[in-house]
Amino acid sequence: MSAAENFRAVLTEIENARKNRAVAKDEEIILVAVTKNHGVEVMREAIDAGAKNIGENRVQEAAEKFQTLNREVTRHLIGHLQTNKVRQAVKLFDLIQSVDSLHLAEALDKAAAQIGKIQDVLIQINLARETQKSGVAPEDLNSLISFVDSAKNLRLRGLMMIAPNFSDVEECRPLFAQMRKLFDELKTSRKAFDFLSMGMTHDYKIAVEEGANVVRLGTAIFGERSLMNGNHRQV
Ligand SMILES: *Cc1c(COP(=O)(O)O)cnc(C)c1O
């Protein structure tokens, strides 16, 4: 199947999953097409198929592709961000989903101030406390939120999580539900706190059922990523 056909099939799956939801049944669900490790032509193909949101993992790779993209699209950074890349990141991305430390948030606030931008961000939580994954530890979440709330050039738009790669994907379900609960609690006292980003190719249907309103899909749309360019990393 072509990427365009896969894209449409995924939209149908998302709609079906939404019907099984207990919470926020009418909420808009944003599909981020993850084009990491693919060329700019794949990015164009996705946009021409209807993708309004594109996700990239690495600043440098994204910068090269955006330069020749020639299309309007909302740009998401979903991979771990190093502080030496923040100046470039605030220029390139509409939403930075991977804010996971105070240090990074401070650097982003400064870099955004320098170019006169209010940078939209999500806080990434390492809910399952996996040592190899990025994301703020649950016990450090409140202080990070307080900082981002107070930062003049950052706007906290929501939360992001990468679920563990359980062999039985159903094990993700309680974690997704826990994230939705946390999201709803935080939302009551905030403006523009709209996005709960969770769900990838292997677990997005469950994520949507449990309340995700942003899903990040690569493999489901574009097939397996090749190992050829050496960029492939497990996340
Ligand atoms: C690569 C990546 C995705 C997409 O993964 P698939 O399994 O290919 O859908 C989603 N989120 C993040 C943070 C990623 O790095």
Entry summary:
α2 crosses α3, α4 (86-92) crosses α5 (102-114) and α5 runs parallel beside α6 (141-150).
Describe the model.
With 235 residues, the protein is an alpha/beta fold. Helices cover 39% and strands 16% of the residues. It has helices at 3-19, 40-48, 59-69, 86-92, 102-114, 141-150, 173-187, 204-209, 219-222; strands spanning 30-34, 53-56, 74-77, 95-99, 119-124, 154-160, 195-197, 214-217. It has an 8-stranded parallel beta sheet with strand order 7-6-5-4-3-2-1-8. Strand 5, helix 6 (141-150) and strand 6 (154-160) form a beta-alpha-beta unit. It is globular and about 45 Å long. The structure holds pyridoxal-5'-phosphate. Pyridoxal-5'-phosphate is lined by residues 34, 36, 57, 78-79, 162, 200-201, 216-220, 235.
Which features does this protein show?
8 strands, eight-stranded parallel sheet, disordered C terminus, alpha/beta, binds pyridoxal-5'-phosphate, 235 residues, 39% helix
